[in-house]
Amino acid sequence: MKFLIKACISCSLSFFVVLISFVIGHTSVTGVCSNCHTMHNSQNGAAVAKDDSGSVTSTPHDALLIYSCLGCHTATSNTTWKDPFTKAPIILNTVGTNYGYNNEGLSAGNFYNVVSSDNTGHNVLAGNDDGTLGNTPPGGSALGTKIQCAGTAGCHGNRTESNQITDLKGAHHTVDTTIDGNTVGRSYRFLKGITGIEDDDWEQETATNHNWYKGAIGDSDPSTISYLCAECHGNFHSQSGIGTQSPWFRHPTDILLPQTGEYSVYDPASGYSVKAPVAWTDPASPTRATAVVMCLSCHRAHASPYFKMVRWDIKSGTLSTALSGCNVCHTSKN
């Protein structure tokens, strides 16, 4: 009888794993359920769940998860860019990064850079508020709590619930061959409502294999990557905050990259720059005429090694280094 029960359980689990593999076969989440989940947070009398640092904790996580958001997307080596079991992209290498463009990690950057300085990124590390700005994003209003990966104080998920896991629930199991923004799972990088085309290796290799961001002219299209940034940094995005033409009050976003003068040299449709990327009004059919200046043209989304999470060292004492990203577009400033 015990053998029969075990056999039935084994068959059921095998069927369940096959079913899950079929359902999420088009996403980056693959493998057996136990790679990410634990039934009781107990195995052979010991806890299974781990905290952000990777230490075992007796406190279970929501949704039966083994890890928190950061825990699942963290690696202890400087060369790991994708978890070998869960296939999760790595956004925190605890000893720094030695991969990606200029060894800065994946396209959004790496949270390793905020370990020693708040000024280089969004500080989502557990128990570590931004010591410079508190919980008030530049150009926006106080969040009421420290910034998180998801939820009302985060970027990913529905951004409607304070609990990160609840806010993201189901997204990792969604077939995401279509990115239309209708659900979290079918939104660009789980950023609800945002569209675009995702690079399948998170831009960790070369500039010829990169993300295709959605942009628009003006600040009213809720499907653009800059619109997402504006949810917290509104003063830096609204037309009243940046102006409508040169001379600008602040560096413009959500405008077409000019095609004349010093800007004509940079043609991202044929010579895309990871140091100064652009968005497109139609990412599926990018042309020089539809290239849009966006927030991520200058900043990384998570963190960078540089001041204010800029993509290059704007505070460098060497002028050519400080201007090395500016003059991708502003070629007369070389």
Mind explaining what this structure looks like?
- The protein is largely without helices or strands and 334 residues long.
- It has a domain at 1-26.
- The chain has helices at 2-23, 69-72, 164-168, 225-230, 239-242, 319-322, 326-329; strands spanning 74-75, 92-93, 196-197, 212-214, 255-256, 279-280, 291-293.
- The strands form 2 sheets. The chain has a 5-stranded mixed beta sheet with strand order 3-4-6-7-5, with no helix packed on it.
- It starts with a helix and ends in a 5-residue tail after the last helix.
Task: Characterize the largest beta sheet: strand count, sense, and whether it forms a barrel.
Answer: 5 strands, mixed
SSE class:
little secondary structure
Number of helices: 7
Unreliable sequence segments: 1-27
Amount of helix: 10-25%
Form type: globular
- Strand arrangement, major sheet: 3-4-6-7-5
Distance between the termini: 79 Å
Average pLDDT value? 87
H/E element order: HHEEHEEHHEEEHH
